[in-house]
Design goal:
Largest sheet: 7 strands, mixed
Pfam families: CheR, CheR_N
Shape: globular
Number of helices: 11
GO molecular function: S-adenosylmethionine-dependent methyltransferase activity
Helix content: 40-55%
Number of domains: 2
Domain CheR-type methyltransferase: 1-260
CATH superfamily of the largest domain: Vaccinia Virus protein VP39
Number of strands: 10
InterPro entries: Bact_Chemotaxis_MeTrfase, CheR_C, CheR_MeTrfase, CheR_N, SAM-dependent_MTases_sf
Distance between the termini: 53 Å
CATH class of the largest domain: Alpha Beta
Protein name: Chemotaxis protein CheR
Strand order of the largest sheet: 6-2-1-7-8-10-9
């Protein structure tokens, strides 16, 4: 049976979450959030939004479980391999001109994209002078990213992605098998800073040469997308690069004309003013 969620009830619930916990989902794509709330309530046998509200407002552990379930954590190593191939071709040579490189991976989930970037930078001789800032709203996902573990059953797919992305070595050089998991090489993790950051509410915290935020904006409404693009613009150095997901764009962003398309298909942009 499909649980009904009234618009007013939905808005009140999101406002309560924002007031009590500081998480703002009011500008997330409504259909997507409602679908995930319904799934959470059905899985946990919660009869309605008022019951869910009472539960998460008085029980912080229940709220953390709720956040883990409704935030999206779909990711994989070298996802969309041609994107990484384009980074090697169009961005790496520019990054190499900086004595010190700062990369921000926003919405890093469980870290597969972070370790993909670390491997790419290692192979291009840039990792030692790079700091990668990996941020996400989901603390559970961040801890998994920090632990540097992935499921061993994914390695065949990840290896194929790595090869298609222009990988220069043997992919198995970068991890060690550990029971049913793999542990990413410690040297990849040394230059990564993991931290909670809420794109809907938090501000810029540094200046970066490269920002990757892929397949995150699709979960926001147009107003929040625009706000986040402004945040990235503010956080990029002059001629810094921005990488988005293949279903995302700057088409309706206020700062659209402040960026130049470096790779139209792979959604890589450069800040030009």
């Amino acid at each position: 049976m499909l649980l009904m969620i009234a618009n007013e009830e939905y808005r009140q619930f999101l406002e309560s979450v924002r007031f009590v916990y500081g998480y703002d989902f009011t500008e997330y794509a409504e259909a997507s959030v409602i679908r995930r709330i319904r799934s959470f309530m059905e899985t946990n046998r919660i009869g309605g939004l008022k019951e869910l509200g009472r539960l998460v407002m008085k029980d912080e552990a229940a709220f953390e479980h709720f956040i883990q379930e409704i935030t999206v954590n779909v990711t994989e190593m070298f996802r969309d391999p041609q994107f990484y191939k384009s980074l090697r071709k169009n961005v790496v040579n520019r990054l190499a001109t900086y004595p010190f490189i700062k990369v921000w991976i926003a919405g890093c989930s469980t870290g597969e994209e972070v370790y993909s970037m670390a491997i790419l930078l290692r192979e291009e001789g840039l990792l030692e002078r790079t700091v990668i800032y990996a941020t996400d709203i989901n603390q559970d996902a961040l801890q998994k990213a920090k632990d540097g573990l992935s499921t061993i059953s994914n390695m065949k797919n990840y290896t194929e992605n790595y090869i298609k992305a222009g990988g220069k070595n043997s992919f198995s050089d970068y991890y060690k098998a550990k029971y049913n998991s793999v542990l990413w090489d410690k040297s990849l993790r040394q230059n990564i800073v993991f931290s909670v950051h809420n794109l809907a509410m938090d501000k810029s915290f540094n200046e970066f040469q490269l920002i990757l935020c892929r397949n995150v904006l699709i979960y926001f409404n147009q107003s929040l997308q625009n706000k986040v693009i402004d945040l990235f613009y503010e956080s990029l150095c002059p001629f810094g690069f921005l990488g988005l997901g293949n279903k995302e764009s700057l088409l309706f962003a206020d700062k659209q004309k402040c960026f130049e398309e470096i790779d139209k298909k792979e959604k890589i942009f450069m800040k030009i003013k």
